[in-house]
């Protein structure tokens, strides 16, 4: 396929691999790949990339996940209680605890040398909660070798734009009233949520996603969050040495057109740098022409993302201490210029992916 041809949004197919039963009720699917087959035949155990999808996503509904094997790492899609329609009655706390169990399964029980997590959309919120909100005693402490955020968008800003001001305000205020009356687990009325979500959603989760007061559990990535709050999220990654890569989509359909994507990512990276977080400045940034999950993008656009991920994973293999890349002078509003490392680079990916 030529690099300028659009990626197919869906092709009926089957995928060989291994289904892992990592807890009594939870599973994870590991895609077949040369590195996995080599391990099965007595070779070195593979480094492992754990993929966490977004709201409403299920196994394989994110179209690019199987292509991640081209990085040379074994790729696993993690299924948690919030997968598919389960997110509406769940919490990030539950998600992060289940993610910790999966990390431990691959790192300890299966003895995988390196384990990195890659979150897509709300999967990024799961990872951020794991890194800066979950009690250290509940983490798979010392077992996570890196984290990647792909399409870390604000659900609050997306829903406000989709629903319109009046409906949006009515929805979060209704959720707030239920929570204050001790009914946070009550399901939101279908007439409020049906136009944006099929899944039943609790008042607590709805408020977490939509509150304009910046007090929602899910609100990590909104463009109006101030520096002090960012220092408590991006600046509070535990442990600070955990390698972090942030990749934003330049044409993400869930991001309002008013959002300065480059400036927003620059603010996040700037906070990380100032607080000593081990962020990959060189490969973090905005992938131009990329949609939310790369559906319909040219192959070259997805190839740029794959190249960024591949170079990050290579750095993790080599010890995980990132060079920091090109950082422009700090400006008066505490942002930094992020030099996006475009192209495929490093011989990791060909122009045909």
UniProtKB/TrEMBL annotation:
Coiled coil: none annotated. It comes from the Eukaryota. Gene3D superfamilies: alpha/beta hydrolase. This is DUF1749-domain-containing protein. It comes from Arthrobotrys conoides.
């Amino acid at each position: 396929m030529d690099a300028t041809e659009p990626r197919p949004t869906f092709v009926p197919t089957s995928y060989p691999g291994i289904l892992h039963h990592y807890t009594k009720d939870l599973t994870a699917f590991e895609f077949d790949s040369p590195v996995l087959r080599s391990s099965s035949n007595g070779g070195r155990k593979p480094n492992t990339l754990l993929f966490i999808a977004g709201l409403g996503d299920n196994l394989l509904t994110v179209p690019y996940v199987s292509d991640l094997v081209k990085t040379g790492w074994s790729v696993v899609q993690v299924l948690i209680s919030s997968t598919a329609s389960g997110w509406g009655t769940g919490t990030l706390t539950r998600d992060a605890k289940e993610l910790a169990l999966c990390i431990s399964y691959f790192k300890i029980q299966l003895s995988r040398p390196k384990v990195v997590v890659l979150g897509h959309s709300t999967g990024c919120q799961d990872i951020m909660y794991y890194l800066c909100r979950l009690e250290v005693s509940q983490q798979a402490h010392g077992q996570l070798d890196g984290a990647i955020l792909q399409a870390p968008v604000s659900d609050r800003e997306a829903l406000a734009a989709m629903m319109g001001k009046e409906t949006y305000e009515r929805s979060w205020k209704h959720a707030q009233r239920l929570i204050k009356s001790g009914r946070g687990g009550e399901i939101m009325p279908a007439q409020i949520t049906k136009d944006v979500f099929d899944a039943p959603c609790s008042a607590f989760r709805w408020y977490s996603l939509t509150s304009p007061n910046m007090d929602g559990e899910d609100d990590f990535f909104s463009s109006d969050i101030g520096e002090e709050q960012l220092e408590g999220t991006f600046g509070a990654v535990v442990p600070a040495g955990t390698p972090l890569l942030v990749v934003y989509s330049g044409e993400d359909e869930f991001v309002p057109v008013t959002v300065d994507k480059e400036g927003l990512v620059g603010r996040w990276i700037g906070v990380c740098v100032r607080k000593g977080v081990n962020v990959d400045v060189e490969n973090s940034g905005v992938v131009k022409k990329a949609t939310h999950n790369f559906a319909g993008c040219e192959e070259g656009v997805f190839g740029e993302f794959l190249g960024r991920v591949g170079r990050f994973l290579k750095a993790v293999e080599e010890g995980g201490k990132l060079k920091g890349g090109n950082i422009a002078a700090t400006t008066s509003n505490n942002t930094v210029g992020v030099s996006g490392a475009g192209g495929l680079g490093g011989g990791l990916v060909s122009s045909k992916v």
